[in-house]
Every structure is written in structure tokens, then in C-alpha cells.
Amino acid sequence: MSHFHAVVWLDHAQARVFHFDRDSAEKTVLHGHKHHLHHKAGAIGSGRDPADAAFFAEIAHTLTDAGEVLLLGPGAAKLEFFRYAGKANPALEHRIVGCETVDHPTDGQIVAYARKYFHAKDRMMPLLAPA
Length: 131
What we know:
Helix content: 25-40%
CATH class: Alpha Beta
Structural class: alpha/beta
Number of domains: 1
Number of helices: 4
Shape: globular
Number of strands: 5
Distance between the termini: 34 Å
């Protein structure tokens, strides 16, 4: 089944990708790196792990057929993925229509949030009149 809209909830450990329409949703779960980087006082560097390009590539691959994508997540991973898309997959970057902070919702809450988001977005789009 093919759906036009997709929503991705992601953090650095996991991505939940939903392709959906008004009546149905298909879920894919992807896993990123599972280790934590510990920062010691006085050490050089930010103490943050670099973005997981392989994880982001998997997410991008699952979004190949999506017409519009909404990114959700609690932290910086969603913004890092957006930057990754801009460099590695510009066609995907142009299909990302929103990026919002959402803590740790259930699957049903993610899909409901996205349906509401796209419903409002679609209502705000200007109607094109035939010439």
C-alpha cells in the first residue's frame, strides 16, 4: 500500500516511521547506535557522538515513496537528520515539510499528531484556479 504522507519520530537510538492516510498507517522501526559517549571534565571535544550516517541513510530509504514528511522527536536527532537529508538527499529535504519537538508519544499519538498537522497544512495551501 502506498501513502502520500509520512511521519518520523526519532531520537539517536530509534526511528519510528509511519506512512499513513486518513484510514490506515504502516509502521517501520529502525535502530541507531546503542552506545553512549561519556564526557570527562577537562577533555577536548563536545562529548557527543557524531551523527550516525548509516542510521540516517536507512531512515531516508524508508521515505523514498513519501510525498510529504513530518519529523518529530525530543532532541537534536530530528535536526541532524534534516541536515543529513540536505547534504545526502536533497530531493528528500524538499519533501520534509515540518520539524517539531515531541517528547515520547505512543504510536497512536504520533499518527494522530501527524494527521492533525497535515490536515491543517493542507487547508492552508492556496487552491489553484484553472487558467
